[in-house]
């Protein structure tokens, strides 16, 4: 119900969702009465993964009705590891420092799809939002929500911890769309402003493949807010780097804000390949 009128069609329902999202921190309203199709598609509550063999074409668009998100922790961000290739394996989220027992908050309103243990992730909460985006909160010590529960933006959903494959207490945060992990820093500005980087964000493979990024530093961010920009970015001319005396793959990757793995895959070389002075590398 909105006032005394019933929600008669999908358009009204979606507009009401947008209304609640915009003011979810100030208004004591829940979205439990809404029946959006995104909460029905592949709604799996017994395991972390809801989508398998996803056939989604790049670039694809994610729409946001909010301009800001709620911080997942109550203190200033200290990012200890970023989205990218790490220790010869993909790291599909960002790690944010916290103390065991610290409150963890939902960054946007949505519905809890999974709350339980998952291999490697330990105690984990997965929330799906009305635009189809899912946020993952892992390595927790306890739960404050359960599956199929609707949550507000900024609501406490869990307690920080060190469960699963973890080397110390922290929050592992992922953003996924239909099973595809996306670099969270492409969608969200992890500064004190807590801004979402755009109303309409187009995702190319560059922002989904971990080997394109280094977990040790932030990638060079390019916001793509239209299909045309996404295609132009996809087809952009790659920078060519000419190897100089004393160059190493790690040094070249660091100066160009990319990953060693990406340089190797793009140029079909190995990490152990000896670089030659004058050799051209596509960055």
TrEMBL record:
GO terms for molecular function: metalloendopeptidase activity. PROSITE patterns: LYSM. Residues 239-283 form the LysM domain. SUPFAM superfamilies: Duplicated hybrid motif (SSF51261), LysM domain (SSF54106). CDD domains: LysM, M23_peptidase. InterPro entries: Cell_wall_metabolism_enzyme, Dup_hybrid_motif, LysM, LysM_dom_sf, M23ase_b-sheet_dom. This is LysM domain-containing protein.
């Amino acid at each position: 119900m909105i006032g005394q009128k019933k929600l008669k069609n999908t358009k009204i329902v979606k507009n009401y969702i947008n209304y609640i999202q915009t003011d979810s921190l100030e208004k004591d309203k829940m979205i439990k009465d809404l029946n959006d199709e995104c909460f029905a598609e592949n709604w799996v509550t017994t395991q972390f993964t809801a989508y398998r063999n996803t056939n989604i074409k790049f670039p694809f668009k994610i729409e946001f009705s909010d301009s800001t998100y709620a911080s997942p922790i109550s203190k200033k961000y200290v990012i200890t590891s970023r989205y990218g290739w790490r220790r010869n394996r993909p790291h599909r989220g960002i790690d944010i420092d916290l103390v065991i027992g610290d409150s963890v908050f939902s960054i946007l309103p949505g519905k809890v799809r999974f709350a339980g243990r998952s291999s490697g992730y330990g105690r984990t909460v997965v929330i799906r939002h009305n635009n189809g985006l899912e946020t993952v909160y892992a390595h927790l010590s306890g739960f404050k929500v359960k599956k199929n529960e609707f949550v507000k933006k900024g609501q406490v959903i869990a307690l920080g911890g060190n469960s699963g494959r973890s080397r110390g207490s922290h929050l592992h945060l992922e953003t996924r769309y239909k099973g595809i992990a996306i670099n969270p820093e492409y969608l969200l500005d992890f500064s004190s402003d807590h801004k979402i980087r755009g109303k309409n964000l187009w995702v190319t493979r560059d922002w989904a493949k971990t080997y394109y990024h280094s977990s040790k530093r932030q990638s060079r961010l390019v916001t793509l807010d239209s299909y045309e920009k996404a295609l132009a970015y996809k087809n952009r001319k790659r920078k060519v780097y000419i190897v100089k005396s004393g160059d190493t793959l790690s040094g070249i990757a660091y100066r160009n804000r990319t990953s060693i793995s990406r340089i190797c895959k793009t140029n079909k070389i190995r990490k152990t390949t000896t670089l030659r002075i004058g050799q051209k590398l596509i960055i």
